[in-house]
Amino acid sequence: MAYNEQLAKRLRASFELQPQSVRSNISEKKMFGGVAFLYSGKMTVGIVKDNLMVRVISDKMEKTLKSKHVRPMDFTKRPMKEFIYVSQEGISNEEQLLNYIELGLEHAKHKLNNL
């Protein structure tokens, strides 16, 4: 199944707004039948069908899951640890999208700092 190309364009444009130190470390990789954006090799956000996929640090999962239009990522029919899906309604504007990108970047940086 194809992923939402329009959302991919929005993500690319949003990453262009990040500081150079972030932009230069972002790569794309086909994953989960969609596309993922990685920071220094660590997954941040991605797209599966029409859903935004976001990595979230454990400490913020409970609060984030209470947000409207957010649910656990259940790609394998079971919730995946530190992954969420955000429906299109939850990223209807660029501010919302940037907030989820920041969560994903925070997760990647946290993983890199704990290596």
UniProtKB/TrEMBL annotation:
Recorded hits in Pfam families, A to Z, give: TfoX_N
Protein name (database record) = TfoX/Sxy family protein
According to its UniProt entry, this protein's organism is: Arenibacter arenosicollis
- What are the residue boundaries of the TfoX N-terminal domain, all occurrences included? 24-108
Q: Which domain of life is it from?
A: Bacteria
Q: Which InterPro entries match?
A: TfoX_N
